[in-house]
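Fill-in record for HEAT repeat domain-containing protein.
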Amino acid sequence: MTAVTDLVHLTPQHSARRVARTGIAARSRGWFGDRGVFCMPVLPSFTLTHQWVRELRRWHPGVLAAVQLRLPGDEPVTVGRYGVPPQRLTAARAAALVRELADPRGYEVFVPRAVTAAEIRHVRSIPQGVGWRYLPGAHGTRPCACPRCLAAGTPGAAKIRRRFSPDGPAPTKPELMAALRAATTSEEIIEALWMLGGRRRGGAEELAYLAVHPDPEVREALAELLGNYRGRAARELRRTLDPQSDETPGR
């Protein structure tokens, strides 16, 4: 029996039926200029298998679905951490390499061809808050606003530069709150919350309306921000967002 390798590709939910029926087109460009499909090996950890969900949604807002595919183990692919020249390996060896890593965050497998419908096992709905954003381990880290780290075209780049660039004064909290109130989409709200981060002050009650926002990613961003706030209102909001949290009386 020929060895096979299971991989997962993320696709917009609205394309899921078409993908299951016709396969995955070779639309992405790999490191070496060829066209194909980005994937992750199926790992023991659900979170690591689907780690790219949040980062992909930052660039392409909308609901994503997971397409599980099965390729021959000797299928030629490339594998590596994003932004670094990948290795050319077989699908089986690439999956084994990623599985053996102590920290596989940021890794990806590239199949340099289209994937046929016969190679797709199933398409599933997945939680939309899985994985990391900006870069692995970025949670709680101040973003760098230099052109090298914050490339032109990055979603929310202008707002991040206004807040974190050493050139010019940072916007005041009233200005940031006005931007938050004016935000309409989930992405705009999350960007506004990100800009408010790092301001260690009160006023958590101004954010209470977001605790019941229908988008779980907005609620998650709010929970992250509230770690910078003090006072009773902040504690109550944190308990609302995470009833299992163990809030200490002095926080």
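KEY FINDING: The longest strand covers residues 4-12.
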